[in-house]
Amino acid sequence: MSIDSTRYLLDSPESLEREVARERLVPREESTDLLQRLMAIADSAGKIPKRENAMTDDEILGYDELGIPTK
Q1: Cβ atoms < 10 Å from Cβ of 60
Q2: Which of 11, 10, 20, 62 lies closest to 45 in space, CA to CA?
Q3: What are the φ and ψ backbone dihedral angles of 34, each rounded to 5 degrees?
Q4: What whole-number distance in Å separates Cα of residue 55 and Cα of residue 21?
Q5: Minimal CA–CA distance to 42: which of 58, 70, 64, 23?
Q6: Pick from 71, 54, 53: which is nearest to 62 by CA?
Q7: What Å distances lie between residue 27 and 13, 24, 38, 46, CA to CA?
Q8: Residue 53 has pLDDT above 80, yes or no
Q9: What residues have CB less than 8 Å from 64, skipping those under 6 apart?
Q10: What are the pLDDT digits (tens) for 23-41?
Q11: Which residue, 23, 20, 14, is CA-closest to 42?
Q12: Does the structure show a pLDDT above 70 at 56?
C-alpha cells in the first residue's frame, strides 16, 4: 500500500470509512501482517460511538475561538 500524505488528510470519519472501503477493494496477492493489523484497527475505530458533546478540533488542539493557543 503506497501512502500519499496529501491523500490522507481526511476531513471526517466518513472520509476514513470511504478510504478503508476503497483499500479493501484493491486485489492483493498476499495479505501482510501489517495490513491485517491496520484493518483491525480501522474496524475497531469505526465501532467507537460518537459523543453528543464532542470537543471541536480547535478545542482538542487547545485553541480558542480566535485561534490563539489556550495551553
Answers
A1: 9
A2: 20
A3: -60, -45
A4: 27
A5: 23
A6: 71
A7: 24, 8, 16, 22
A8: yes
A9: 58, 70
A10: 888 776 666 788 888 889 9
A11: 20
A12: yes
pLDDT in tens, 1-11: 444 444 555 56
Across-strand partners of 69?
63
Q: How far apart are CA 19 and CA 25, in angstroms?
A: 10
3-state secondary structure of 69: strand
- 61 phi/psi in degrees, rounded to 5: -80, -15
pLDDT, position 5 = 45
> How is residue 1 written as a grid cell?
500500500
